[in-house]
Amino acid sequence: MKTEQRNILAEIVERRLELVAQDIQNKPIEAVKAEIDSERPKRRFFTALKQDFDAINIIAEIKRRSPSKGIIKESVDAAETAKIYEEGGACAISVLTEPDYFNGSLEDLRSVKKASTLPVLRKDFIVTEYQIYESAAANADAVLLIAGCLEDRQLSEYYHLAREIGLDVLVEIHDETELSRISDIDPRIVGINNRNLKTFETSVSNAISLASKLERYQLPVALSGINTIADVQLSKNYGISNFLIGESIMRSTSPVEFIRDLRGKQ
Ligand SMILES: O=P(O)(O)OC[C@@H](O)[C@@H](O)c1c[nH]c2ccccc12
Fold first, then answer.
1. What SUPFAM superfamilies would the database entry show (predicted)?
2. pLDDT tens-digit profile of 149-205?
């Protein structure tokens, strides 16, 4: 008999919606929109990824804990971590802002943006339009949209809204069904998650096999489970140049050297 797998993604999304409802009580959407500075300095996430063919671009992630691994690093100073990532040559910084399962916050994102000169990606479970405006108000340069937790209509609306207000978008997929669901929005940056967010099963070959199915002009980013130089090199051999890495960098005793090693630089 097959036991039903607890769907963690659905649980996180349910909780996220509750938290956003509280945020809206505290600060209505009009107030958030008013906080967006149209003159804010924009750093292009897309450009950071579009380097030469030989490059290995690392988006280094600030991730305090995760539902699959528990606490990854006890005390984390987001601003200091961002500076270290930049020193190692990361091309962009991803900041987990989900509070309950990842111990993140928009405060982390704001301080990372101030402390570094790199583009900053807001990594969260974006399931409302409110969070998109909130991302721009917090000075994010890009947002993540996860196909697995959005309906087609939401995916398209949020994608276009984010682009309209000047945010780049990383659209995350995990399998071929999700790949076909994003063909209408035709995103320029496609994150391929090696981890199944419903079951946490992880395989680095997932990004490799799906990347070959993207359009030529779409930039693949391999997400999750990349722990070693060999993992990076393997994907690179299959034409993937962009990697989003959290846990292994967070756990490293010398992240500057580790990021350099992953990039194949001295
Ligand atoms: O820590 P890892 O295995 O290097 O993974 C980083 C990143 O890919 C992962 O944090 C992630 C990918 N997609 C997500 C969606 C929500 C939250 C987290 C994620």
1. Ribulose-phoshate binding barrel
2. 999 999 999 999 999 999 999 999 999 999 999 999 999 999 999 999 888 899 999
Ligand 1 pocket test: pick from 11, 61, 226 the residue with the most ligand atoms within 8 Å of its Cβ.
Answer: 61
CA 219, CA 55: separation in Å to the nearest integer? 13
Question: Ligand 1 centre from 222 Cα, in Å?
Answer: 10
| Structure token pair of residue 256 | 């500057």
CA distances 116 to 69, 90, 113, 119, 161, Å, are: 27, 11, 6, 8, 26
Q: Is 202 helix (H, G, I), strand (E, B) or coil?
A: strand
- Domains of the chain, residue spans: 8-36+44-263
CATH superfamily placement of domain 8-36+44-263: Aldolase class I (3.20.20.70)
Residue to probe by mutation, ligand 1, list 122, 146, 195, most atoms within 8 Å of CB: 195
Let me know if 36 is exposed, middle or buried by CB neighbors in 10 A (0-12, 13-18, 19+).
middle
Q: In ligand 1, which atom is closest to the CA atom of 194?
A: 8
- Positions of the chain with pLDDT lower than 50, given as ranges: 1-4
**Whose C-alpha lies nearest to ligand 1, atom 7?**
224
Which amino acid is residue 164, in one-letter code?
E
Do 49 and 58 touch, CB atoms closer than 8 A? no
- Within 6 Å (CB) of ligand 1, which residues are found? 61, 63, 123, 146, 172, 193, 223-226, 244-248
Residue pair 224/202 in contact (Cβ under 8 Å)? The answer is: yes
